TrEMBL record:
Substrate binds at R196, V197, G198, D199, T219, G220, H221, G222. InterPro entries: ASRGL1_meta (IPR033844), Ntn_hydrolases_N (IPR029055), Peptidase_T2 (IPR000246). Its EC number is 3.4.19.5, 3.5.1.1. This is Isoaspartyl peptidase/L-asparaginase. The record marks G167, T168 as: Cleavage. It holds the Pfam family Asparaginase_2. Keywords: Autocatalytic cleavage, Hydrolase, Protease. Belongs to the Ntn-hydrolase family. It comes from Neovison vison. The gene is ASRGL1.
Amino acid sequence: MNPVIVVHGGGASSISKERKERVRQGIIKAAEVGYKILTEGGSAVDAVEGAVAFLEDHPEFNAGCGSVLNVNGDIEMDASIMSGKDLSAGAVSAVRCIANPIKLARLVMEKTTHCFLTDQGAAKFAAAMGVPTIPKEQLVTERNIKRLEKEKNEKGALKLGFQQDLGTVGAVALDCKGNVAYATSTGGIVNKMVGRVGDTPCVGSGGYADNDIGAISTTGHGESILKVNLARLTLFHVEQGKTLEEAADMSLGYMKSKLKGLGGVILVSKAGDWAVKWTSTSMPWAAAKDGKLHSGIDLHETSVADLP
């Protein structure tokens, strides 16, 4: 089985010219990180964790050190990961002062009998596992401080349904043994209420993985994604015989028509096919397979290059 990895950097209304090249290089590098893990014999879980952790460490993406701020100016991060081999999954929500929530989610999956830990419970578990804490200041960027100020000044009150930047990062992979996995991580929505949790840590909404079908990671307006269970809905369409592209178009179209919710998905099938689809203006993505790297940001934009 030839390994495959697909990575996304979240949906957005637009990405400024100043940021676009940094975002492009970041998403490409994340795919290269994950693909290298796969080609060296690593598992799909290893690959998606590695790719997403790279993006959590990159300040241009809304996860980890690039996470947006809540109404109080604090960071609360969500993440989830799942193995399609046995449907094992781990998730965390509302975690603070941790560099890589996706790594903590994997520890939940592998070191507990639970699927999901939140807030103080997740923090206590992280401490028990020896996960280091970092000062809040290391996660907060000047750009996100300005974004919060702008959001409050322009809107006054919280209007989650009209967010322009729907940032999340995610990855899906198929390894050489035929196992699939997904990982998704986010800082949430700018100016969100304290304790708000979106789709990202919720298995079936933020992502899903099953060796009998494939794997998916989602991005977009979290409340809308939760209401339609976007990840599992898309894979149900695949189970019913739709192509990856058809399944993605159907589920994203349903969410948009029912809720006016925008979003995007990346998928890999059990056979190694892959797809990227979104209804927001743009979605940075990259896919690596057979020594080729495919990438893009805007609709109808695809670049292909040889992998290093």
